[in-house]
Amino acid sequence: MNKYTFEKLQLNEVKELVKVQCVSSLGKDLIDKLNPSGNINIVKRRLNENKEARSLIENSNHIPLEGLFNVSTMIDKIEKGMILDPYELIKIQDFLRGSRKIKSFMLQKEVYAPTLSAYALNITACENIENEIEYCIKGNKVDAQASKELKKIRRNIEVTESKIKERLNKFLTASRNKKYIQECIVSKREDRYVIPIKASYKNEVDGVLLGTSSKGNTVFIEPKDVSKFSLELIRLKSEETLEEYKILAYLTELIFERIVDIKLNIEIIAEYDMVFAKAKYSQSINGITPKINDRGYIKIVDGKHPLLKGHAVPLNLEIGKNYRSLLITGPNAGGKTVALKTVGLLSLMVQCGLDICASEDTIINVFENIFVDIGDNQSIENALSTFSSHIKNIAQIINESNHATLVLLDEIGSGTEPNEGAGLAIAILEEFYQKGCITIASTHYGELKKYATHHPEFENAGMMFNKETLQPLYKLTIGISENSNALFISKKMGIKDKVLKRAKEYIGDKNYNFDLVKRSKIQSSKKESEEKIATEVPMYQVGDKVKLLDKDDFGIVYKPMNKFNNLQVLYNGEFIEVNVKRIELYLKATELYPNDYDLDSLFISYKERKLDRDIERGSKKALKKIQKEMKQNIN
């Protein structure tokens, strides 16, 4: 089995539907790891568990799995030597209580589920740990009754806090202090009790300054006669923390002593969560537990693809008894690929221990390998065409296949020259047959249909097509082959009758029509096209100001349009070539310049124009300058 098969047959999407039925991440994690087994005994056990779980659900009002959390992370912390906090201990307590309840429940259901109930014998009840946690932890904190020392410390804390509050109230109510007090309240700073005092009186109040307000108007002072009690409270709080730590460490140690048993409990509860999720999924699809074998025999009766919505046409297919290879033919969009996927996915589901939507008469073979070549595997990264990628995949399948392999091939041999493709497809199918594989392939090639007709262990099958309504029936019939019905589908898609009539003639005798189109018709069409272009494209003149669409900027036309519809434009001091479709006329040259304006001055600098005039009038200085530049270029 490989990930490519799971992806193409959408097994992971089905697993997601099963995971929805789990009550905790324990079952979900197991389903994520669940893979089809090629061992018939394992598959039998999985299917039997599923059947028993469904029987339990149907004969019980409630399965006590709710509230069971995944405590694996807490167990990991304990194994690393860490101490659990009260919240984590409560989670462990809930899990142990839930494990005890599911054990009791399953042992009472031995009649309905002998196999599943036997697993419960391995669940260890840890009531002493439950009781200790319940006694020591209440409201997600260590209870004062957890130890005599903690009870004594907590009582002393209450007494000390009472004394502090009493002295603070006296300070607040004393008339001499009213002018100092900003607000008549008791606040806390650094876990010590303070009173808000006006900043201007901070030096007149005897006590410890522990903070200032953001605006600086208020300071927070702990009065002197409160300080000694505050220090006492800090000491008691420290003792309380130490005593709580001892209690948490004691409870964690109790769990550590039974950690092997608890880890086994986690595994069994996870297994129960997964099995009951499978059973609930089976109920949701009205599924059945099919018969299984390992002789290569498949008989699907009214099987349905679990991911198809609405009213899906059921599949009926048999292979592995009188023939080991099946060729499915029929129209495009007629259901051939869905039929292949249905066979593959139902097989994978059963080998995962999942029920399927089919008739009770369905029989599924347990394969060691299931390989598929379905869909477009074109790879741009590896420079593989569609045909090359299919052949590469098939080559790998041939190398890994054996007598216990199911091979599903969609449009085998397609993507290349039909004669070569058909010959290659037959040779590939022969190779799979010689290896003892069960092979189901779809094709449009007539040669393959003919080959299957003559081979004693090959069989044709066709996806039916209603020729009156031009609709596929999505119904597979064994023993007959169906045409691709390309002409019927083409007619439905709007191809003219005269084209379809000619196609029928070519299918029959290959007497092709080579009549030529009259030249007058071509010339007329060409002339109309040129006239249309002439009317659509403006005739640009030298000096026109145009907008360059690609640059969102403006330039000046230097040379008019050539035969390729390109112009030369002066842009940012450079001459560039631009297609007429990539510019827009902004202002005509006639609107920009007078009639007698020298347009060359737009493109030639004053120095160049002066040099030209000097040469025209025979200037010796200009001639010497040119001769000098020529010598420099030669050197």
Commentary on this structure:
The chain is of the alpha/beta class. The chain is 48% helix and 17% strand. Helix 9 runs antiparallel to helix 10 (224-257) and helix 14 packs parallel to helix 15. The longest helix is centred in the middle third of the chain and has 34 residues, at 224-257. The chain is flat. It starts with a helix and ends with a helix.
Give the topology:
Layout: H1 3-9, H2 11-19, H3 25-33, H4 40-59, H5 72-79, H6 86-107, H7 114-119, H8 127-136, E1 137-138, E2 141-142, H9 148-173, E3 187-189, E4 192-198, E5 207-212, E6 218-223, H10 224-257, H11 259-284, E7 291-293, E8 298-303, E9 315-319, E10 325-329, H12 336-351, E11 363-365, E12 369-373, H13 386-400, E13 405-409, H14 418-434, E14 438-442, H15 446-454, E15 458-466, E16 471-478, H16 486-492, H17 497-509, H18 519-536, E17 545-548, E18 553-559, E19 566-571, E20 574-579, E21 583-587, H19 589-592, H20 606-616, H21 620-634
Parallel strand pairs: 7-11, 10-14, 10-15, 12-13, 13-14
Antiparallel strand pairs: 1-2, 3-4, 4-6, 5-6, 8-9, 15-16, 17-18, 17-21, 18-19, 19-20
Helix pairs in contact: 2-3, 3-11, 4-11, 6-8, 8-10, 9-10, 14-15
Which descriptors would you attach to this protein?
635 residues, alpha/beta, six-stranded mixed β-sheet, five-stranded antiparallel β-sheet, 21 strands, 17% strand
